[in-house]
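All the exercises in this workshop are built on plain-text protein records. Sequence and backbone structure share a record, each on its own labelled line. The question running through the whole workshop is how a given chain folds. The record below serves as our worked example for the rest of this section.
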Amino acid sequence: MKNLYMIGGTMGIGKTTVCQILKQKLDNSVFLDGDWCWDMSPFQVTSETKEMVLENIIFLLNSFLHCSVYENIVFCWVMHEQKIIDDILSRLDLSDGKVHLISLICSEEALAKRLQKDVEKGIRTEDVIDRSIGRIALYDCLDTVKIDTSKLLPEQVAEFILEN
């Protein structure tokens, strides 16, 4: 039996950090960050690039699901709409798998503080703060387990995921 952990959340919420911890804690695991499929310059969001990114994500996830070496697949991406989650799931071979759908959420204040640190380090631009805060409410509508990370360390979030 395979476990697919699909972890969503707005930009800067801590998805990648939590998933890296999960990868280390889970046996025979592999991690895919959906953002890796968007790592292009210039960054262009078109119908063509959106479909290409989805196809690449689905190809990789199915490859991990079919590989006998991996028992646990950890995947993160913004996934702020149910149709994105449903589209990915509909194209995966989950015949021998259990899916764990998780959304990381937090307060506006906590998110702004996290993102401001990234802005100060030059990792992100200032405009990401308002864009990311504007997406927080979208996760309330998703059919996922919500984890409020406002007052939790990434290790605590990973432990919560593993315990539930």
In short: The chain has a mean pLDDT of 95. The domain at 2-163 is CATH 3.40.50.300 (Rossmann fold).
